[in-house]
Amino acid sequence: MQYWWMWFILFLVLFVLPAQRARQLRRIRIAKKNRDKRKKGVFTMNELIKNYIGKEVVIYVSTSGVSGVVTKIEDNWIEVENKNGQKQLLNADYISRIQEYPRNKKGKKKLVAV
After folding, report:
1. Does pTM top 0.85 for this prediction?
2. 43 Cβ contact partners less than 8 Å away, ≥ 6 residues apart
3. Which one of 23, 37, 67, 108 is separated from 56 by 20 to 30 angstroms, measured CA to CA?
4. What angle do CA 41, 56, 108 make, to 5 degrees?
5. CA distances for 93 relative to 5, 42, 82, 97, angstroms
């Protein structure tokens, strides 16, 4: 067992590093495919989101949600301003769902889990 560090290095070189590289290449390939589709005009996300400018919306991104007023859209970026006046930029590639903030019959906001 005096050469355990050699086995550890061999394990890293043969298994861990190639797996990390494969994940990175897969992410690059997906991003390139999305960029090519956007250039061809397949993605019309910006045109759809332009309907929500000035409205209070809930935007679901891949890992979380953001609520606020959509102020502007440029290229593939959306600027959202929340009720505190803080602005956030969101990449339209990662948006999974967008909806206008739900209201009840009296016009009050409904509770939404973001």
Report:
1. no
2. 34, 37, 92
3. 37
4. 145
5. 43, 12, 21, 11
Per-residue pLDDT of the chain (114 residues; tens, 9 = 90+): 678 888 888 888 888 888 888 989 998 998 888 788 777 765 567 788 888 999 999 998 877 889 899 999 988 889 999 989 999 999 887 888 888 877 776 766 666 655
State how far the alpha carbon of 77 is from the alpha carbons of 82, 91, 92, in Å. 16, 5, 6
Contact criterion met (CB below 8 Å) for 71 and 79: yes
Could you tell me where the DSSP H helices lie in 1-114?
A: 4-11, 17-40, 45-49
Q: Which residue has 């009050």 as its token pair?
A: 108
